[in-house]
Design a protein that fits this description.
Structural class: alpha/beta
Strand content: 15-25%
Shape: globular
Order of helices and strands: HEHEHEHEEEH
Number of helices: 5
CATH topology: Glutaredoxin
Number of domains: 1
């Protein structure tokens, strides 16, 4: 009986890992990155009309973080990305964060506080639909989706379900910046 219970537990654990690993969100490697507009909260265009950072950054290496909430793990991810961008100025690396919400104004104070508290230089922005830009294929099950592109083509995508962003995931995102900095 103990062996049976152990086998069932192992199957359930493996099944959970497979389900977690199968979360797909965002564009796939090789996909083209289309323009979309955000409201800049902390960047150089804060408080102005909506703008397209995808358009402004052109062919540069870019990391875009799409998140449905701002918590300590997202803050840690953003801080690491901000540091990576600062270290790769000669390669013109860029990044921005997009909070996806049906009430974007509700997140502005939190983003301003994060930028000030952590010294974040990359733009923190909002998007006015929780689903995200239509053609970006952001899963409703993903709390955080990170896409990395260069020359308008996706080189890496990471998706994290609610509460699943951790140090290992942050390291994977940072390690994959090598794919856009080649």
């Amino acid at each position: 009986m103990k062996k049976f219970v152990a086998c069932v537990a192992a199957v359930l654990l493996c099944g959970s890992a497979v389900i977690a690993a199968e979360l797909k969100s965002g564009l796939e490697v090789g996909d083209s990155v289309n323009p979309f507009y955000v409201q800049d909260v902390t960047g150089p265009s804060a408080g102005k009309d909506p703008l397209c950072y995808r358009c402004q950054y052109g062919a540069r290496p870019v990391v875009a973080v799409f998140t449905r909430k701002v918590d300590d793990k997202v803050a840690a991810l953003v801080k690491e990305i901000d540091s990576k961008v600062a270290k790769n100025g000669e390669k013109k690396m860029a990044a921005f964060v997009v909070v996806l919400s049906d009430d974007p104004a509700a997140n502005e104070a939190k983003l301003k506080e994060l930028a000030k508290k952590e010294g974040i230089k990359i733009p923190l922005t909002t998007f006015e639909k929780a689903a995200g830009p239509e053609d970006y294929k952001i899963s409703k099950d993903a709390e955080v989706t990170v896409m990395e592109w260069v020359k308008g083509k996706v080189k890496a995508t990471h998706a994290f379900a609610a509460g699943k962003l951790n140090e290992e995931g942050i390291k994977a995102v940072i390690n994959d910046t090598s794919k856009i900095l080649e």
